[in-house]
Amino acid sequence: MHVLGFGKAPSREFQLVIYGATGFTGRLAAKYVARQYGTTSLKWAIAGRSSGKLEAMRGELGDDVATIVADGDDLEALKAMAERTDAIATCAGPFARYGSKLVRACAEAGTGYCDITGESDWVRSMIDDYDDVARKTGARIVHFCGHDSIPWDLCTLMLHKKFLEKGTTLKKVDFYDDIKSSPSGGTLETMFGILFGPESSKKSTKSDDDEERSSS
Questions:
Q1: CA angle at residue 88 from 82 to 93, to 5 degrees?
Q2: pLDDT band at 7 (very low <50, low <70, confident <90, very high)
Q3: How confident is the model at residue 200, as a pLDDT?
Q4: What is the rounded radius of gyration, in angstroms, for the C-alpha atoms of the chain?
Q5: What predicted TM-score, i.e. pTM, was given to this entire model?
């Protein structure tokens, strides 16, 4: 909660921006925030690349929710957005394709960042490229905050606590799961991108201003 600016005076215009708020997962996140914190003093906004879709989403959430238009390939727009908020939660993937410039913008602006990626190779490249910058600015860059990671992280934490109660230490956890669900369009695009698309061969993205954005 601290990274979102809860429990302290906001230092910027917003405490939280949900980026990619008109996509499948982004809509769920935006509706959750509106439901849980709509009557509180939280200053938040929804953001994405389509002003029309954002306005339509705003109509579902309430007129007091601000909107920010910023394309994932427009570094200057992303920087301007990052400078207006304490933290950004992004649901706009595939992240290796659309997320690198937002990580850069947040790292340089000292803005908290979290995403729902499961793309470990991309995360590795983001750490290589922007960890030093984030440490200097105080930005907290937190990846793997979605379904690919959180359930297993929470289970591991609970097991760790139980082992401590018994006076021993957890050494290793192997997880096996059976999931009955249908992947969203973004998840499918990520999977195919990793297997066959530009993400399959993408390495460092620090100097990615000349990259061409694949059509979604």
A1: 105
A2: very low
A3: 54
A4: 18
A5: 0.77
